[in-house]
Write a structure and sequence with these properties.
By secondary structure, this protein is α/β, with parallel strands linked by helices. It contains seven helices and ten strands. The protein has a single domain, classed as Alpha/Beta hydrolase fold, catalytic domain (Rossmann fold, 3-Layer(aba) Sandwich), CATH 3.40.50. The termini are far apart.
């Protein structure tokens, strides 16, 4: 099942990459007037141009990273929920995905740099602490980013992340991870629950936990209308509250 899942992810990655910068719009397609969200431009830590959705305000910032073949719109509804809870939210389009162009002279797979750039943008806008939450490929990216002190992340949440994918090795990075961390996956979602457990074991964080949920939901779907969504949301919300209390 792991091979099938990764082949599917690879197919989506190739499709996304082949789309090219010329087909990208200037703002996320899901943006709706009057809902408190704004389309923003920012730079990754290595200078790559990115776009994303900014919502809410508050001293705790949340970077949201999407899965392969997706965009910041994957997080749109959940982002509004986080914003309503008093958090400053930045859902990004990774380089080469959504409305973010493919970088011409920079690594195309340095998604951890995108996360670091988003964290810096949130701090520039007033966040005192920043947590990164990633879905699938985004979960791999946020773990790699959080393992670097340069990213200045204060916590990380990984939803259904592959231990290694798209040129990113989260399992290796987890061995350097010291910030508070949470790892989630669904029991019937291929090899992703095994990866969540492996990442949890590898992390050096004193404050860490792994939650394996019933069913087969993947990524952001864990937080949505599934049999385990209420439990998953409570797990993540409690974690955010712990970090916010120190902001």
């Amino acid at each position: 099942m792991r091979l099938v899942a990764l082949l599917a992810l690879s197919t989506l990655a190739l499709a996304a990459s082949s789309a090219g910068a010329s087909s990208r719009t200037e703002q996320p397609y899901c943006l709706q007037a009057g809902d408190g969200a704004a389309s923003v431009s920012l730079r990754a830590a290595d200078g790559a141009r990115l776009r994303g959705l900014l919502l809410g305000s508050g001293k705790l910032g949340i970077v949201l990273g999407h899965q392969v073949g997706s965009s910041s719109c994957e997080w749109y509804e959940q982002g509004k929920t986080f914003a309503a809870a008093g958090y400053r939210v930045l859902a990004i389009d990774f380089r080469g995905f959504g409305s973010s162009p493919v970088p011409a002279r920079l690594p195309t797979q340095a998604l951890d740099s995108d996360v670091a750039g988003a964290a810096a943008e949130l701090r520039r806008r007033g966040a005192r602490r920043v947590v990164a939450i990633g879905s699938s490929l985004g979960g791999t990216a946020v773990v790699v980013a959080a393992a670097s002190r340069a990213s200045r992340l204060d916590g990380v949440v990984s939803l259904s992340a592959p231990a290694a994918y798209y040129g990113l090795d989260a399992l290796r990075a987890a061995k350097r991870l010291t910030v508070p961390a949470r790892f989630l996956a669904a029991r019937l979602d291929g090899n992703f629950p095994a990866d969540a457990r492996a990442l949890g074991r590898a992390a050096r964080s004193r404050d860490k936990a792994v939650l394996i949920l019933p069913g087969g939901a993947h990524g952001t779907s864990l937080l949505e209308n599934t049999i385990s969504a209420r439990r998953a949301r409570a797990f993540v919300v409690a974690f955010l509250g712990r970090i916010a209390a120190t902001a």
